[in-house]
Amino acid sequence: MAGSVLLPKPCLMRLPHYYRRLMKAIHEGQSIISSEELGEEAGVPAAQARKDLSYLGEFGRPGVGYDVYELAAHLEKVLGLNEPKKAILIGVGNLGRALASYPGFARYRLQITAAFDVDPSKIGQRIGSIPVLPLEELETFVRQRAVRMAILAVPAPQAQSIADRLSAAGIRLIWNFAPVSLRVPEGVKVFNEDLAARLATLSF
Ligand code: NAD
Question: Using a 6 Å cutoff on CB, does residue 199 contact ligand 1?
């Protein structure tokens, strides 16, 4: 179901914000939510929130609002949040360690099954339940466990060669934190994460 609805990218980027607001509403026992409240979470006016959600189908009643549970369940389907996703992490430095320790990914059914590094002092360690394995085991692990997603947190000069190996092993989605533009074969998607670039737009 994930990805089966065609959405404009800005709208897609706002859906997790709506979902996060819905989770807060559920936590607080709220059963109906307004487009104002949803829009506020995503930083857009209520009309934009209503437009975004109209892409998903007929939800909400004018003058009443959205059923929190119904909308949350639908967003979970659209965003694929109810499907478990296995990922591996490459690079267990400051950033990699923080990502591997973050409990919030579980809410999105993302499970980091193993981490890989070249530093002998890190290999054999565990970050919580995640084992740190030698890079030589990368391809075998990906193939045997049918992992399709990788989180890349290695220094920039190493990122391309790792991306090549990941693509050849069968990884189809790379969540790339290294500040480098990766070249990947057709069928592999790269999602770049760059906090510094975001900061630059924020400063502007
Ligand atoms: P770090 O130096 O603390 O850690 C890098 C880790 O990668 C080390 O454990 C090192 O042993 C390992 N490594 C090096 N070469 C490797 C290889 N070929 N295969 C596997 N592991 C290898 O660096 P960091 O601060 O954790 O940053 C990691 C990357 O993330 C860098 O590229 C950095 O620029 C980037 N970064 C991005 C953001 C962002 O917002 N996107 C934020 C912080 C850092």
Answer: no
- C-alpha of residue 117 to centroid of ligand 1, in Å: 10
CA distance 6 to 41: 22
Mutate to test the pocket of ligand 1, among 122, 154, 181 (most ligand atoms within 8 A of CB): 154
| Cross-strand bridge partners of residue 152 | 90, 176
- The model's pLDDT over 151-181, given as tens digits with 9 standing for 90+, comes to 999 999 999 999 999 999 999 999 999 999 9
- Measured from the Cβ of residue 149, the count of other Cβ atoms closer than 10 Å reads 18
Prediction pTM value: 0.85
Specify the residue with its C-alpha closest to ligand 1, atom 44.
Answer: 95
Residue pLDDT, tens place only, 44-76 = 999 999 999 999 888 878 888 999 999 999 999
